[in-house]
Amino acid sequence: MTKLQIQYPPQLVSQVKKRVAGHNLTGFVAGMGPMHPRVMLLGEAPGRQEAKTGIPFVGSSGKELMKMLALAGLTRDDVYITSVVRSRPFSIRQVQDRKTGAMVEKHPNRTPTKKEVLAYAPLFDWEIKTVQPQIIVPLGNTSLQRLLGPTAKVGSLHGLPQKTTILESLPDDSGYEKGQHQYWVYPMYHPAAYLYARRLEPTVRKDWQEFGNWLQRN
Ligand code: URA
After folding, report:
1. Tens-digit pLDDT profile for residues 48-84
2. Domain residue spans in the chain?
3. Is the CB of residue 44 below 6 angstroms from any atom belonging to ligand 1?
4. Where is the Uracil-DNA glycosylase-like domain (predicted)?
5. Which residue of 13, 39, 99, 210 pairs with 79 in a disulfide if CB–CB is 3.0 to 4.6 A?
6. Where are the alpha helices (DSSP H) in the chain?
7. Cα-to-centroid distance, 58 and ligand 1 (Å)
């Protein structure tokens, strides 16, 4: 497994952490992989396994993602992997334990809020300028919309590459503006989407196979 974990500027990390203080977020998982890669995979936020190990995409979504990468002729070591939020968002639920009947507190994963994605935006802006990928593969709507705005939907854009500028955070952190640099953006479904909706699997497999063909042609 690639051991190249990126070192973020500590000042930027503490600025971001201050902005999400009090939110239900835990751990901190740095992006990982080679500098100047051909492909950057962009997820949503770490899950439980990732927050525990500090390595992106090692849980059930990660295992599925590695199978899809293989369909494109790629391995984890070939790509840079990160996500738009660096800590695990969780919700707090009181549930009844089936065996004992006692109420217990659970902390399941949840999708990061728009506010949390914006809080982490300066860190991702820095990361993308430092890593300089040629192609960004956003996985699901959270990362796709971070790049292209709220009207972009993975249901209609998956498997369709486009050369485009991407959003970066405004200097006053109040929102986003279009950046200058153009990247190839190749949207894909998030692996968790078809873990929950198996009917999507043939589409997702086809998208990744075609991504492999596209990489060979371009
Ligand atoms: N989902 C993500 O977006 N990133 C991970 O690392 C794991 C699950």
Report:
1. 999 999 999 999 999 999 999 999 999 999 999 999 9
2. 3-217
3. yes
4. 30-209
5. 39
6. 10-19, 48-53, 60-71, 114-119, 121-131, 141-148, 154-157, 191-196, 201-217
7. 8
